[in-house]
Design goal:
By secondary structure, the protein is α/β, with parallel strands linked by helices. It is built from eight helices and seven strands; from the N terminus they run βαβαβαβαβαβαααβ. The chain has helices at about 15-30, 40-50, 65-80, 105-130, 150-170, 190-200, 205-215, 225-235; strands at about 10, 30-35, 55-60, 85, 135-140, 175-185, 245-250. The relative contact order is 0.15. The structure holds nicotinamide-adenine-dinucleotide. Nicotinamide-adenine-dinucleotide binds near residues 16, 18, 139, 189 and 190.
Length: about 260
């Protein structure tokens, strides 16, 4: 029996990286997926790959309240309910010390990474309540549990969604809606390449080598590995898990 048979899932940031890998796995496990992203062409390519019977896409900015309600309504119009919400869209922002960090960039990171998640839950919880329950998975980060220099807004945003998750889990437990975060680091996607480049524009490969050395397993994780954790949390396999963080970081959070 597929682990997400007949489940309806919304995945934000679904056009690339962890979101797209999760979309592939969710569909392989029987789900219908609505992908949300700001990248129209990549979304179209993802739907073409997954098949229009299994997937649809909405171009939306997760930080916008009306657009958020719009993509939840699109899922309800097509499939009548939402069982799984994977709040995964995120941006890394710039790399700079806190003192030098531009205020407008701080606002942008918080808008996408925090307001985007909060708005998503605000729109999706009523739909899940009507459906009798569901699972919400939020992509936080190791940076939601620990600090890192020169990306303070990103770190703040990823801590903030752990707080949102804990409050929502308590509010929703009696509604049969589970809420958890996944806390990855470092995963081989565009985002980590951007950070390598920003930390060392002339030698990003040195940052990669240093990061790999600092991971106890001595490698980056893959989006597919994170997708498997998202699948566990999305599915009934995790039926007694709510209100907690799930690290996937090659051992980094152990030290
Ligand atoms: N790659 C890592 O090492 C790592 C580690 C920890 C956490 N994360 C988190 O994983 C999540 C996915 O990132 P990824 O690594 O797959 O990177 P990615 O850049 O490949 O994917 C992020 C996706 O989110 C989309 N997006 C960005 N802003 C958006 C917005 N305003 N509205 C809708 N979509 C938007 C992007 O277009 C992109 O498709 C992010 O929340 C990120 O913070 C990544």
């Amino acid at each position: 029996m597929p682990r997400l048979a007949d489940k309806i899932a919304i995945i934000t940031g679904g056009a690339a990286g962890i979101g797209l890998a999760s979309a592939r796995l969710f569909v392989a496990e029987g789900a219908k997926v609505l992908l949300v992203d700001v990248q129209r062409e990549a979304l179209d390519a993802a739907v073409a790959e997954l098949g229009a019977a299994n997937a649809m896409a909405v171009v939306a900015d997760v930080s916008d309240a009306a657009q958020t309600q719009g993509y939840v309504d699109a899922a309800l119009a097509r499939w009548g309910r939402v069982d799984v919400y994977f709040a995964n869209a995120g941006i890394e922002g710039k790399v700079a010390t806190l003192v030098d960090y531009p205020l407008e960039e701080y606002e942008r990171v918080m808008a996408v990474n925090v307001r985007g998640v909060w708005l998503g839950l605000k729109s999706v919880i009523p739909a899940m309540t009507k459906a009798g329950g569901g699972s919400i998975v939020i992509t936080s980060s190791l940076g939601g549990l620990k600090g890192t220099p020169r990306i303070s807004p990103y770190i703040a945003s990823k801590h903030a969604v752990v707080g949102i998750m804990k409050s929502a889990a308590l509010e929703c437990a009696a509604l049969n809606i589970r809420v958890n975060t996944i806390n990855p680091a470092p995963i081989a996607t565009r985002m980590i390449q951007s950070l390598e480049q920003q930390y060392a524009p002339n030698a990003p490969e040195k940052i990669k080598a240093r990061m790999e050395t600092s991971v106890p397993m001595h490698r980056y994780g893959t989006p597919d590995e994170v997708a498997k954790l998202a699948l566990f949390l999305a599915s009934d396999d995790s039926s007694y898990c709510t209100g907690t963080t799930f690290s996937i970081d090659g051992g980094m959070s152990a030290s």
